């Protein structure tokens, strides 16, 4: 790709800048594993479930999607539900507690290749933003010592406050581009999740780059990626 064709880079966070996708996967597996065990359900929660029903979606939507796949119905609840509550919101909050505990215990380091690309874009003067479904984007960026590179952060909390639809809708990416003052045709979307590349495609951005961290290049291309890379250093 020729960076002269673009003025902004819109990065998903988990799985693109930082390997917090792994932390999220562990937290989801711990939460859903405990939940299924509590209900006496023998069919386990798997990584395929994560990629199909959870990856890239807002937290409560991920809970809702997985439960529907198993034919399990729970009340919606509300964001103030305790993590012990048997509701969609309660399970989502339980997952967040597990995530915070794992992050505090293990920390997080950004992908070296992603750091290389960010450094190269700083030198070029390319504008950058984080667009994440996670409500933990800022703590993760601080832990990774990367927050100063991104003057615009549109995460799950911001989306909720502004009433922006989550991925696979393009609203959060469009909002980030608007905040940066860059037309969508001059912005590049970087995503590792199927719902994320679908959002980039739906928003008709200049380029949608799929980052294959395990979901598979074919699936990323099928869902809206224009190109797929294994590591962002390839584009630095």
TrEMBL record:
SUPFAM superfamilies: HAD-like. Its cofactor is Mg(2+). Its EC number is 5.4.2.6. The keyword Membrane does not apply. One of its GO terms (molecular function) is metal ion binding. The keyword Lipid biosynthesis does not apply. Pfam families: Hydrolase. InterPro entries: B-phosphoglucomutase_hydrolase, Beta-PGM-like, HAD-like_sf, HAD-SF_hydro_IA, HAD_sf, PGP-like_dom2. Keywords: Carbohydrate metabolism, Hydrolase, Isomerase, Magnesium, Metal-binding, Phosphoprotein. It catalyses: beta-D-glucose 1-phosphate = beta-D-glucose 6-phosphate. PANTHER family: 6-PHOSPHOGLUCONATE PHOSPHATASE, HEXITOL PHOSPHATASE B. Belongs to the HAD-like hydrolase superfamily. CbbY/CbbZ/Gph/YieH family. This is Beta-phosphoglucomutase.
């Amino acid at each position: 790709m020729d960076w002269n064709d673009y003025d902004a880079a819109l990065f998903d966070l988990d799985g693109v800048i930082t390997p917090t996708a792994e932390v999220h996967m562990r937290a989801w597996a711990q939460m859903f594993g405990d939940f299924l065990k509590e209900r006496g359900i023998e069919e386990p929660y798997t990584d395929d479930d994560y990629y199909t029903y959870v990856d890239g979606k807002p937290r409560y939507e991920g809970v809702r999607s997985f439960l529907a796949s198993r034919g399990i119905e729970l009340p919606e609840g509300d964001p103030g539900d305790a993590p012990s509550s048997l509701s969609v919101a309660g399970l989502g909050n339980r997952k967040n507690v597990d995530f915070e505990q794992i992050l505090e215990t293990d920390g997080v380091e950004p992908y070296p290749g992603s750091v290389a690309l960010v450094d190269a874009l700083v030198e070029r003067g390319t504008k950058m933003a984080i667009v994440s479904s996670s409500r933990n984007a800022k703590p993760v960026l601080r832990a990774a010592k990367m927050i100063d590179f991104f003057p615009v952060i549109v995460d799950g909390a911001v989306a909720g406050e502004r009433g922006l639809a989550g991925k696979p809708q393009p609203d959060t990416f469009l909002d980030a581009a608007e905040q940066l003052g860059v037309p969508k045709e001059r912005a590049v979307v970087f995503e590792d999740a199927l719902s994320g590349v679908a959002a980039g495609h739906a928003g008709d951005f200049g380029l949608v780059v799929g980052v294959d961290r395990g979901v598979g290049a074919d699936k990323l291309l099928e869902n809206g990626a224009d190109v797929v890379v294994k590591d962002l250093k390839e584009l630095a």
